[in-house]
Amino acid sequence: MENRRKPITYIALVVVAVVAGYLVYDNFIASDPSDAIGIQQGNQILDQTIPHVDGSGSVSFSDYRGSVLVIDFMAPWCPPCKVQFPVLSVIDSIDGVEVLTINVDQSYDMESLMSFGEEEGITWFFGHSPATAFEFEVSAIPTVLVVDQEGKIVNRAFFTTIQDFEDILTPLID
Fold first, then answer.
1. Short-list 68, 26, 50, 21, CA closest to 169
2. CA distance 134 to 41
3. What is the spatial distance between Cα 136 and Cα 156, in angstroms, rounded to a whole number?
4. Which residue has the higher pLDDT, 32 or 167?
5. pLDDT of 112 strictly over 80
6. Helices within 41-147 (DSSP H only)
7. Half-sphere exposure of 155 (CA within 13 A, CB side)
8. pLDDT over 70 for what percent of the chain?
9. Contact partners, residue 161, CB within 8 Å, separation at least 6
10. Strand, coil or helix: 33
11. CB-CB contact of 73 with 138 (8 Å)
12. What whole-number distance in Å separates Cα of residue 72 and Cα of residue 142?
């Protein structure tokens, strides 16, 4: 009888050691996946530098740390993108919130984009970076990202309404 208990005791000890090791690793050693740099909701945003369509310079996403950043990926030929602009105009007027619109279509030159921006009333930063759209796996437009003050993507969605923005932004700017 004593001989049968020894293997069971050893197996139980191994199981306890494995579970304890996993708990120590998971709670103290493994990194938090929300700290990962990336392009999805919950990630720290992958930093990119975006040139302005007027050639006046560029900005990086990290330039907006301390503010809530709304990134709008769009193209001039996209009707839902044009409908998104009045919503973004309202959002841009909120203290502590910055808006950045990025053209994703490489077939547009900077002069035509500047004219488009003026026609549509884009008064916030308007950049051009098809490469960033590719890097961020933008497959539908307008794709809108909301990034908190610490650089974490808190929302990634297709067309975003005023009500959606109110629900997303209220806890971030209160």
1. 68
2. 17
3. 11
4. 167
5. yes
6. 79-92, 110-120, 130-135
7. 23
8. 84
9. 87
10. helix
11. yes
12. 6
Q: Write phi, then psi, for 124 (nearest 5 degrees).
A: -95, 180
Token representation of residue 35: 């700290």
Cβ burial of 160 (10 Å; 0-12, 13-18, 19+) is: buried
pLDDT at 22: 63
pLDDT in tens, 65-77: 999 999 999 999 9
Summarize pLDDT for 17-43 with one digit per residue, the tens.
666 666 666 565 655 555 799 999 999
Strand 143-147 relative to strand 153-157, pairing:
antiparallel
pTM score, whole prediction? 0.80
Contacts of residue 114, defined as CB under 8 A and 6 or more positions apart, other chains included, come to 53, 54
* Coil, strand or helix at 3: helix
| Measured distance between the N- and C-terminal CA atoms of the chain, rounded to whole angstroms | 68
Domain ranges for the chain: 2-30, 34-173
Is 34-173 a domain of CATH 3.40.1710.10?
no
Give the sign of the dihedral formed by CA 92, CA 110, CA 141, CA 81.
Answer: positive
